[in-house]
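Something for you to look into today, if you have time. Could you write out one complete protein record for me, on any chain you like? The space below this message is yours for that.
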Amino acid sequence: MSAPTASRLDPSTIVSTNPGRNYEVVGEVRVSTAADITVAVRQARAALPAWQRLTVAGRVKALEPVASLFEQHRQEIAEIIAREMGAPAAHADGSTSWALNRMRWTLDNAAACLAPEITFEDAEEIHKVFYEPLGVAAVITPWNFPQSNFVMGALQPLLAGNTVVYKLSEEVPMFGQLLDRLMAAAQLPAGVFNQVYGDGRVGEALARSDIDAIFFTGSSAVGRKLYRIAAEKFIPVHLELGGSDAGIVCEDANIDEAVPQIFDAKFCNNGQMCCGLKRLIVHETCFNETVEKLAAYIKARRIGDPLQEDTELGPLVAQRQVDLLKAQVEDARTQGATIVVGGREPPGLNGAYYEPTLIVGVKPSMRVWKEEVFGPVLPVVSYKTEDEAIALANDTIYGLSGFIYTARRERAEKLASFMQSGMISHNGTEYSGPHNPFGGYKMSGFRKTGGKYGFRDASRIKVVCLRK
């Protein structure tokens, strides 16, 4: 049984359901109308001049209470994430910690990252670069990490002086309502942050409204559509899209250390992560060992109700995600691939569950190789030479992140230089720290969030040349 949705029942209502407990109803939210969107954009437009004049220091001070309220309501945030999209309680709490740490760094470093820069100076002149807001920003984010996606999508544009009209995925509307309550409690100036609710149709209407920039995180298909809308309006667009990220395991890798790192890179959030490891490429000399140890590690993990403390893997966000995974795995099976572990819906669980799955005998023609696999399914292939490994890694329309497992740092640097990915991890290192730019190549999008790069991609650059 699949969850009821607003599109199938009442088009004016979003019904939030729990994918881990047979789609029991969590709550419901009214879908924003065209008039609601117009009002939200007008409020953001009216608030823009005062928000810009507040200066970076003033905007940091105004947003500090949001960070404090996020900390105070940490348990409530983690619980609603677990209930609405199925993240196990421990994982939801970890995601909340990650978001809070990122928010703290972003607030602490905003002034330095957005400070004017001197580009030239002599006895007669001084030239400066200033970072100014783009204007009213439409920020549209997905469901997989609700709080983190808000922090990554909206915080830097706000600190850069933009006002925001925010649309969160229709899969997690109750988190959206909690976010609205916390933002109201923080007492931001009226119109600085506004939220609308609905599916892609609401997102498209927002993108076509009187806005000055689009910040979108989600699928490449939707990103391409928004890119066309932005082109017609001649406004900047920030796109963080899908991925089919490759991991390369070299023959000198420590397999016992690599296996938990590979598992975390792939199966974190049950594989529902744009920058997760999606395809594993293993040297032929350690292929069998890697597959056997990874399969044993997977079998030892507990899948179940996300609200139970000992659950390590919960459900997917919705039945449609399960149905897509089943079709992708069945395509591989019919073309001769072997399911080492998993490959089915687990018995005895009611909800959007699918077992963590390992597949070998994978061919380039298979959907699990060609498409983004947004769930707990990992195809594994072997290689002989580094050139072959690089060719396999780059055999995708995407280029978000990549993973390298080798005992030699210089080898990792060499392989990384040839991988067509925006971010590379070596032996489990974390590339998504708040100080780093986050974003990819090819159909994974362009422009960055994070660090000074994200602040500057949320700004217009102005050069002012002055006589002394």
Observations:
- Residues 89-113 form the longest helix (25 residues).
